[in-house]
Structures are given as structure tokens and as C-alpha cells.
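Researcher: We're teaching a course module on how sequence relates to structure. For the next exercise, students receive a sequence and then see the predicted structure as C-alpha cells, so they can try to spot secondary structure elements on their own. Here is the exercise chain.
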Amino acid sequence: MKLLLAIILFNITLFATTIQKPTDQYIADGAVIDMIIDEDKLYAATSASCIDIFDIKSKKIIEKISVTKIKDFMGDEIDSKIYSVDKLKDEILVLSLGKGGARRIHIYKNKKLNLVIPTSKHLYIAKAKFLDKDNVILGLLSNDIVSYNIRTKKENWSVQASLSKFSDFVLTEKKDKVIVADESGDLQIINTRDGKHLKTLSGENLDNVFRVDTKNGIIATAGQDRRVVVYDANSAYYKISSFMIYAVGLSPSGKIVGYASNENNDVTLFKTNTKSTIGVFGGNKITLTNILFKNENEFFVSSDEKTINYYKIK
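Model: And here is the predicted structure for the students to work with:
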């Protein structure tokens, strides 16, 4: 009964709230899988065998990083999905789909792609990010978390976060810890220096956590159980949505969280300390993939289509 009342009250609140439309839109070449911001550029990893690099001010694609297409089991040429993108100084990390479903990783530098993990290693990598100039961290579908040296092309360490299927991971700002989300609903916190397990956060999400984010000591999750959970150093709480929550994002300070809050793919923002709603932002047509804050007043939302919506908090 309490859960039903919470859902009814949530829907009433949304109905009474003015839904804000996108301030601007960016059009990528394919469905957007991952996004990062570096200075005044937006990097969008797409399903169309490329990463589109946008000038945020002009909203135009100023550069494109393309990987080779692949062949499916019928021998037909298809696009290679770019699963994740990252940037460290002048190097860009590109994780893409390769032959037979295995994954490959390239480093893009000086307008050239250098293959550092080939598909012949048969690694089914779901996400990859830089740790430093020599090392990357990999999240495998098996929920193995791997620290890999891209110069020596050897593993530093490998550990299975849990027996559940991998969903997502996020690095802390110092990149000294990785927070791993999976279908169990628990979060595993692992030391990136040696792979040692530091902590488990449990009991808040009851099912698969699709996405996790962290900023300034705050952690937020997007759950299949319709819960957006917020953890800080000493406590945790959750808000209930009327629909499964596919995406979540925190502002740089950790003071604002945005989450996919209903079946219309609207994004609701609220303050993490007071739980008070800031606003509801619409105009997203398909299931969300990313909520990415540029600062405390601007954010981007991508979905399983070409359009990236940009919003200003009014």
C-alpha cells in the first residue's frame, strides 16, 4: 500500500510540474552509447562505427573517429558499435565490437588508430576507461574487472567483482577506486591500484543496477527496480519512479542528480541533500543511455537514437 501511494504521489507531482524542452540538440551519426566532455568538446560513441566529436558552442561535428566495419555470421558487412570512449590528454580510448562478438580497443592519437587489444584475445569487454597514461580499466561481461597496461599489453591484475552479470562501472575523480554495478543490485568498490575489494553497498537496489555515477563522494544508481539510490559517506536513500530507471547522472559537485524518471523518457533533477525536485526535462523519444552534466547548470541527455538533447537548468 505504501509503495502504491508513493507511485501515485510521484505521478501527481510529475503531472503538476512543467516539463522543460531541450535548449539545443546535437545530431550524431548513430545511436549514442557513451559520452564524455573535454573542455568545449562533446565526444559521442555511436552505433555507426564512429565517435562524433562536437564543438559544443557550434553544435557541429568537427572531427570523426572511425573504426572498420565488421562482418556478421552471414558474412554481411555491418557497423561496429562503439561501447565506450575516454580521453586522457592527447589520447582517446575507443572500445568497439569486433569479429565474432569479441571486443577490441584502439588508442587514437595524432589522427591515427593504434590497436592495443585485438579481438584475438577474446575479451568480451563492456566498458573501458583510462586509469593513467599507461593503464586502462576494463569491465567484462563476466563481471571481471581488469587493470591492463596498454604499453606492455599485459594485465596488472584481474578480479571478479561478483558472480552476477556486469552492468556498469564508474571511477572516482582520483581514479583510485572503481565502483561496479551489476544485476544483483549491490555495488562493489575496488581499489584500482591492486584490485583489492574495499566495500560492498547493498540493500538499497533490489534488482539490476543499469547505471552508476559518482561525484564528490556521492554515488547515484539507476535501477530496474524503479529506484534511484543516492549514497553518501554515512547514509543512503532512494526515490521511486513509475518506470524502470535506465540512466542516472550527477553534477560535478554531487549536489544534483538526474535520472530517467518515467516511461516518457523524461529526466527529473533533484537536490541530493534535500531530495527536493528541481525540474523535469523532456523531449527524449527513446530509452536513455546517458545523463552527462557539463556543470551545475547545463547537461546533456543521449538515448538509443542519433539526437543528443542539451538543457539549461532554469
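Model: If you want an answer key for the exercise: Confidence is low (pLDDT under 50) at residues 12-16. The two ends are 35 Å apart (CA to CA).
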